Here is the input.
Amino acid sequence: MNLSRLSSALVVLALASACGSSTPDPVVVASPTPAPTPTPAPSATPRAFACPLPARPDTGVTCPKLSPLLSGYVNTAIETVAAQQPQLFDFNDNLGAGSWKVKDRQRYVDAVILAIHAQGVCAEDDNEEIQLKTTNDFNEQYNIWTSGGYVRRSYITTCVPAQF
Here is the structure.
């Protein structure tokens, strides 16, 4: 091979190598930066219910048994507690008509009071009974558990004016 041809062949090889006959460098594509997940706005801490009605003294007024007006709040509260806190009851030990065995009396009474408050009604535990009012004109007393430890839904009396 003459020298001129050899030099032409080297030029061709050099050009081929420069034109991409070798392995190309990989192209790095930047992955998109993920958008930040929005942080939910903090919710307000639930406030304890505060009865908007001023407290009334117990004046020792005799409280007659009248037609109850607030029993719906009591029944709704008991049903809500049974649905949301089933651990407070033994549903297999039932006297009928939703009178389940209560496993923890004080937790049950406290839960019913809170469920009444959630309905916007003033209520208090009066040791043996609970008392409710929607006005200071009167309050009603209810017994919500039996001495045997079962749910009870019993209207007891109405005090006029309200005694709490």
